[in-house]
Queue: 4 jobs
Job 1
Amino acid sequence: MKNYIVNTDNTYLFNNIYKDMDILCDKYNDLLSKKIIGKSVEGRNIFALKISTNKNSGYTDNKPALLLVGGIHAREDFSVMLVMKMIDYYCYYYNEEDDLDEYNVKKILDNCDIHFIPVANPDGLYIVRYGLEASSNYSVLKEMKIWGEDHTFWKANANGVDLNKNFDDGNWDIRLCIPGTDVPCSDRFKGFKPNSEPETIALINYCKSNNFYMMISYHCSGNCTFWADSGTHNLFNGLDEKIIDEFSSKFIYRKTKISQDPAIYGCGFENWFRKRIKRPAFCIELSPYVEGGRQHPDSMFNELVWKYAKHTGLFFGEKTVEIYNEINNDIEKYAALTK
Ligand SMILES: [Zn+2]
């Protein structure tokens, strides 16, 4: 019988997520490690977990790495469940030296480190689970507008800032907040200045201190992928499109049009990553589209998300190695990607 740790049959309780991180790190201690990369507004740890087989593979420091991120938007907890479950499965299959369907897990992980930040916005997730009253910032939060029916629609961090509009990608001044979201609230406020939030800074510092060749940020909903923006698309000399074309031929996540207007797309984590790290980044919207920011019941994760997305980390691991080789074998062609 296959022995997995992460149970996604229903709501993945807050404490269980963190307990499972420890259990996984204990169980796979040769393979998986955990690090605190920063603290949230309310002082919660933000963790990154890393699968690295450096010990066995003979790679030196410049082994390429892939970053997978969940939970930037609080209510989109399918993304947290997916990232945690990928850690569980990928470690399991690596240890067993077994293929996960058509993916050779051992080969992929021996050639690419995969880093996971399962809960990028822990305070937000806490609010979604336990209500505004449970937040130590309640006296401030209770004055903020909730865009939606109740606290389960919360998307921001505990300062009422939408983290995926807070990154300094050069578009801060023109980034629009639609009327009503230009003050702290549950959804879409970009903050009072770029990079103002501790969660934003944690992600930025972590990206800058690792050898990431690609980043995937998981959200809900729409079953589509945002893969390029007009401000950075030309940098990549076709690399980004080659990857998205293959991805959308193998997975259900529809290729969107290139995001054209920085006043609309600017300051997202993926936009920042493309601009500042100069590597491709993809924002994947999991699960079928739902109106008004509503989420599917957690009990539907396995049938709506896992079934379709479980290989995505392995797919992008393969692509990370491919673009690492491609970029380094033709420095001239990819001169715009020199950091
Ligand atoms: Zn989102």
Note: The chain has a mean pLDDT of 96.
Job 2
Amino acid sequence: MSNHAADHSRRRFIKLTVATVAAAPFAEVLLGGTAIAADTVAETDPQAAALGYKADATKAEKRTDKTALCSSCNFYTGKAGDASGPCALFQGKLVSANGWCTAWAKKAA
Ligand code: SF4
């Protein structure tokens, strides 16, 4: 490869890298936003309704432990501090960190 061809190739690589890095946050917002909206469990979902799931735990009539939240449930795998996260009972769909349902089980320490 000649020096000219190598320079051209290097410049093209740098341009592509810069463009990809610059576009990545926008792609994440677009794709991430769509995925979250599509995968959130609705209280009207038949399984959610059967389990008395409420996105706001304070609205769940059967909840007796006032400290019980999805974020402290063994089936919840969301990150601490996130507003929502996956629940194993809903095939990994997102539930509210402040939600609750009758299947709540204290997270193992
Ligand atoms: S099983 Fe646990 S994490 Fe899933 S909805 Fe019920 S309380 Fe929330």
Note: The beta strands are 84-86, 94-96.
Job 3
Amino acid sequence: MRGKKPEWQRRIAKERIKILFELAEKEFRAHPERSKRYVQLARKIGLRYNIRFSKDLKKKFCKNCNSLLIPGLSSKVRIKNKILEVKCLNCNEVYRHPLKK
Ligand SMILES: [Zn+2]
């Protein structure tokens, strides 16, 4: 089947993404590689079902290496000129999020 996926399928896909992120967080400390695979899988599902990740969810992982970004553990966070800088300590990728207000 081509085109847009039925709504019920997307709903299940969203649920799976949520579960995968929960698993990724749970496994992060003990099994970082497994945790990355969960993030990778969640992203694949998102692509296949055309599901946009919320802003909060997007900030949770590194788009470069699929590692979860946990401040003080796998990421370094600092604020510079009203820009929130998040650095992935796994691959050194830096993400910048302008701070509003
Ligand atoms: Zn990274």
Note: The beta strands are 75-80, 83-88, 94-98.
Job 4
Amino acid sequence: MTGWIVQAVRRGRLTTRFPRAPPGEEELPPTARLPVLAPLPPTEAQRRAARCPTEAIEGTRVDEGRCLRCARCLPGEAVADGPWDHLVPGPGSPSAPGGDPEAERSTSIFAAPFLRSIHVFPIDVGSCQACNLEVLALANPYYDASRLGIFFTPTPRHADLLLVMGVPTAAMEEPVRRTLEAMPSPKAIVAVGACAVSGGLFRSLPGRGSVGSAGVPVVYLPGCPPSPIQILAAIRRAVGVPRAAGERP
Ligand code: SF4
Ligand code: SF4
């Protein structure tokens, strides 16, 4: 026992300091950031848009919900260095229709901020597993979501938030509906990753559905996959906790 204590004291604190301190660069890889495109001559803009696997580029505007943060549209070895904490508007979100990211950033989807711990239930509706791994990382000692009052629950009957990962298809509509039915109110969805937000790479999949059609408020978190810090920030935003260091106003 004494050996464990000595070891722990020597090693020091390993858990991330987020949200007390802004996330470090190592916690936000370039794939967590949106590419920012400068005004370009039309031919160059077309060339960049042609490289985009999800047709997310219109002129210099990047559709955040579709963007996979792959940086193919950036020149040479450049990496994306845009914002990391964007939630995007989508069907069923507080700022839809029309899309107002500012409204999305400032609105809790629940009527009042949560004053208790929050229980989340993840559901995979057809992901490549990468989003699942990032969500699972919240339970490890580094991200340790439980220190922020965020807990995974094995049953939707105790869940406040449904984390949806993957492309929602017509075949999965019924399981998602039944899961939501089992959750007590108030309840909401966090759509984790480009697949759940916009279909991502699979947006032309026949029979693709939408998490927005479930009739429950949705927070849309883009990325492919979003990093654990982004998922933590999205859950906190969904339940209306005050903004943390490093998060955009
Ligand atoms: S998906 Fe890739 S190529 Fe398309 S806008 Fe995003 S970073 Fe650029
Ligand atoms: S958003 Fe990307 S990482 Fe997540 S499930 Fe889809 S393809 Fe996989």
Note: The radius of gyration is 19 Å.
